[in-house]
Amino acid sequence: MRKLILVGAIAATALAACSTTPTGRRVFSLVSGSQMASMGASAYQEIKQQEKASTDSGDNQYAQCIVRNIIAVLPAEQRNQDWEVTVFASDQANAFALPGGKIGVYDGLYKVAVNQSQVAAVMGHEVAHVIAEHSAARMSTGVVTQFGMQVVGAFVGGSSMSPAAQQGVMQAMGLGAQFGVVLPFSRGDESEADIIGLDYMAAAGFDPRESVALWQNMSSAGGQAPPEFASTHPSHDTRIRDLSDRMDRAMTQYNKARAAGRKPNCRR
Ligand SMILES: [Zn+2]
Hints:
Layout: H1 2-12, E1 17-20, E2 26-29, H2 33-50, H3 57-71, H4 76-79, E3 84-88, E4 95-98, E5 102-106, H5 109-112, H6 116-131, H7 134-154, H8 163-172, H9 187-203, H10 209-221, H11 236-245, H12 247-259
Parallel strand pairs: 3-5
Antiparallel strand pairs: 1-2, 4-5
Bound molecules: zinc ion (ZN).
């Protein structure tokens, strides 16, 4: 009941809205972008308190360099979010992104993503989740299916979010107890993040062909618990095929970026 009130109150502070993702998909969202950003920032703080940050300055600069190059090619409105990258010390090959541009990288990722373009494929994917507002859509779906529109209606007129309410939302985002294990996105969201991420990395001057190589590495690494960006759906083969289908276009973009002087040189 307590959770119902929290989530209902939050949903009520936003007007239901439809927005369009970069691939033109319309998404329904009960929670505004700024509310999601504020929730993302709180969740990020919590994760930073719980998880061990990497003290390796080379690893940190490497991740930041790659993300900075990707963000530089976003439209101004999206570029100007409060982007932040943290590298966590952990063997898992993992990464995540929270609304508002909060990105986490586990340094075990560097064992699978072995050059800057492969890391850029992961970062492009994570940035795409943020830009396409997949969390807002996912949470709204959860709110609607669990509590129904009546609950939302009953709380219309609620005030801004309290810290307690934010706690509730974090749980709705799947960030309650097990940090680092973010509630999985849907298959559609994952495919969309792959496609948008490919565009971003190519536009930033990272070699898009390395996205396919990354998935081949992921495939042969096997065994590990699937990280966020490597969720078991869609399968590695499907992702490789979808990326390959779009490679001609990505290469055109990449060549244009290189000709325009976008030649990132991020090193560990
Ligand atoms: Zn993903």
